[in-house]
């Protein structure tokens, strides 16, 4: 007995259609999933690295910051005013997987305190560098950063001219007794000013030929040594942890003072500062 309406072929065709439909649906689903995964991966690859900004906004190089820096990086500003809230923000992953920390001013951005063994372990694995203004690095434990494979970059060299100019001013201020003249001028008393004007020349000294001792000979010390020798004709003696090469000493007219390796103790002794100045 034959199935009505050719039942057997109908069943086979129906099953075949369903299998094809399921196959097409599965292919479509897999294709859509693959596209989503590709899009997600592509988005992650093309996403700009995140930079966590500490402290006040930048004050200089606005064109570079707006046209280049922010084009290459997503800059996220820290809004936490103290260490406790900053740590809480880290624990909640508020700033995401940032790649760098940027602190453009050494006067601000330090509200969170020292970067030490309490704070550094909270940094995400994505971070590669911590950059801060200022010539020093006393606010960050560079050894702890190094153990995490994080570079530390400071602003060494940025303040060489300003600080060495200030030191040069202070040298002249002492030798030429400018402070006495300034104090007399501030009194507003013409007689006192005239008296000091007549006196100051006889109690002042010319720095030329005198010895300038510099404790530490980093970038600022070297810049000051050059200015004091070139402009004021002073003889430069210095003490540094690592003595400069003979070539550098000869080029800059420097004399390393090996006889005072305990210079810190020497200067800390009673009356030693006056002896050095004398």
Automatic annotation (TrEMBL):
Gene3D superfamilies found in the cross-reference section: NAD(P)-binding Rossmann-like Domain (3.40.50.720)
Record-linked InterPro entries: D-isomer_2-hydroxyacid_DH (IPR050223), D-isomer_DH_NAD-bd (IPR006140), NAD(P)-bd_dom_sf (IPR036291)
Keywords, alphabetical: Oxidoreductase
One annotated Gene Ontology cellular component of this protein: cytosol
Domain D-isomer specific 2-hydroxyacid dehydrogenase NAD-binding: 169-254
Single GO molecular function: NAD binding
A Pfam entry, by short name: 2-Hacid_dh_C
Domain of life: Eukaryota
PANTHER family noted in UniProt: 2-HYDROXYACID DEHYDROGENASE-RELATED (PTHR10996), D-ISOMER SPECIFIC 2-HYDROXYACID DEHYDROGENASE NAD-BINDING DOMAIN-CONTAINING PROTEIN-RELATED (PTHR10996:SF281)
Record's protein name: Putative 2-hydroxyacid dehydrogenase
Organism: Colletotrichum sidae
């Amino acid at each position: 007995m034959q199935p009505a309406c050719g039942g057997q072929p109908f069943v086979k065709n129906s099953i075949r259609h369903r299998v094809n439909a399921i196959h097409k649906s599965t292919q479509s689903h897999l294709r859509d999933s693959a596209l989503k995964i590709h899009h997600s991966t592509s988005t992650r690859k093309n996403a700009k690295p995140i930079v966590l900004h500490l402290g006040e906004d930048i004050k200089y190089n606005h064109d570079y910051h707006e046209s280049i820096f922010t084009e290459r990086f997503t800059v996220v500003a820290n809004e936490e005013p103290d260490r406790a809230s900053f740590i809480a923000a880290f624990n909640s992953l508020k700033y995401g997987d940032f790649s760098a920390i940027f602190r453009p001013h050494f006067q601000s951005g330090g509200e969170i305190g020292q970067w030490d063994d309490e704070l550094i372990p909270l940094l995400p694995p994505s971070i590669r560098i911590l950059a801060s203004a200022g010539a020093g690095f006393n606010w960050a434990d560079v050894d702890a950063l190094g153990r995490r494979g994080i570079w530390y970059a400071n602003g060494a060299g940025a303040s060489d001219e300003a600080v060495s100019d200030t030191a040069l001013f202070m040298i002249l201020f002492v030798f030429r007794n400018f402070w006495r003249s300034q104090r007399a001028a501030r009194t507003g008393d013409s007689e006192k000013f005239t008296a000091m004007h007549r006196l100051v020349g006889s109690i002042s000294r010319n720095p030329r030929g005198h010895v300038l001792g510099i404790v530490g000979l980093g970038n600022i010390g070297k810049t000051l040594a050059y200015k004091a020798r070139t402009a004021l004709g002073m003889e430069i003696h210095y003490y540094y942890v690592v003595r400069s090469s003979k070539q550098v000493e000869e080029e800059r007219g420097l004399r390393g003072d090996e006889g005072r390796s305990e210079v810190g103790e020497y200067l800390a002794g009673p009356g030693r500062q006056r002896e050095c100045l004398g």
